Amino acid sequence: MSLPRAPHRALLVCAVAAVLAGCSVSGSGSDAADRSPGAPASAAGDSRRTVVTFAGTSPLGAEHLRRTADRMRSRADALGLKDVRVDTQGNGVTVTGRAADVKQLTQLGMSGHLGFRPVLAEETVGTTPTPTPTPSASGDPARGRAVTDGLLPRAAGSASASAAPAPAEGSVPDAALQARYAALGCSAQERIATRRDAPAGDAVVACGTTGGGSASRAKFVLGPTAVEGVHVTSAVAVRDKQVAGWIVRLDFDSVGARQFSDMTGSLALNTSPQNQMAIVLDGAVISAPSVSQRLDGGTADIYGSFTRESAEQLAVTLGSGALPTPLTVTSVTSLRHT
Fold it and tell me: Which of 15, 221, 208, 232 is nearest to 112 (CA)?
């Protein structure tokens, strides 16, 4: 059976195994020279400074603050950010850096909690235009790459929640959870609310984005976490020549590799959408590719509409591990450096 082509913004997952010999840890088909992050662009001689203040979502002890600040410093170094200062203050952390780097400075405070969960139900709830087109992604079966559909765009007229298919009977494990799912519209406020940490052993509702030629909000019911981010030993941004775009390559430890293999083996037996694997970062679904076969080998490639900057940011966030405690941005202040 030939493997399907993925549309714009399609998402792929690939694992290293004997049957997938063309997708290797060494970066077969990728530009290794582009792996190391480059320093973000800043205007030459720009003396403007920005202070981003983060606060803990709950009272923090001194040791939690210290480890949080250390991890944020490591992220700044890995991203090549220059002249960044990270300080603990009260119940939070302040980050001072160049004004031109304000986006990256803010993203240093991402919790970075990663998990892989099975999709129990999925539904498109709205569409917004995509600002810029991205290269379409397709697999080459001859090279052994495992290709997934990702989240395909719905047919015309089915973008609203009421028009989408109802969850399969028995797919949502709890009546209260099903009620939350039915009411979820994935508005901006709801997306923030669903990004709160949830116990790994619980089924949850979550928001994310579908693929296709337009960015479509989607809502999900997800089963308990099958693989936790603590089992990711490394993450690196790689430019992949086969899809002419950036990917994020993950390596798992032995426990994560076994769990990932078991999860994909189970999902491959299901029909859509319950053959989809949700990659969940800080409570939001960043991709939900479908799985057609067990994926062994302990390596997974995440394909999407990444720029170099966004791929490097995600790789650094995942590679550094989650922050010891969740943070929220409380203020962003511009200063004139003298």
Answer: 232
Give me the CATH number covering residue 91: 3.30.70.3400
Which domain range does residue 185 map to? 18-36+113-319
Residues 6 or more apart whose Cβ sits within 8 Å of residue 182: none
Tokens describing residue 27: 């970066």
Write out the two tokens for 191. 């997306």
Query: For residues 17-34, b (16+ Cβ closer than 10 Å) or e, as one string?
Result: beebebbbeebbbbeeeb
Q: Say if residues 116 and 279 touch (Cβ distance below 8 Å).
A: yes
pLDDT surpasses 90 at 130: no
| 289 lies in the same domain as 251 | yes
Q: List, for residues 149-191, the tens digit of each pLDDT value.
A: 332 222 222 222 333 334 454 566 788 899 999 999 998 888 8
Tell me the DSSP string of 80-116.
T--S-EEEEETTEEEEEEEGGGHHHHHHTT----EEE
148 Cβ neighbours under 8 A, 6+ residues apart: 6, 10, 11, 12, 13, 289, 290, 291, 292
- In order, the DSSP letters of 197-240 are ---TTS-EEEEEE--SSSEEEEEEEE-S-SEEGGGEEEEEEEEE
- Percentage of the chain beyond pLDDT 70 is 69
Q: What is the largest CA-CA distance in the chain?
A: 65
Supply the DSSP symbol for 338. Answer: -
pTM > 0.90: yes or no = no
Side chain identity at 272, as an amino acid letter? S
CB atoms within 10 A of CB 49: 19
Q: Which residues contact 132 (CB under 8 A, 6 or more apart)?
A: none
Closest by CA position to 250, among listed 239, 263, 237: 237
Whether the Cβ atoms of residue 225 and residue 200 lie closer than 8 Å to each other: yes
Least confident range of 27-41, 57-71, 128-142, 233-247: 128-142
- Please indicate, yes or no, whether residues 295 and 146 belong to a single structural domain of this protein: yes
Structural tokens at position 311: 């791929």
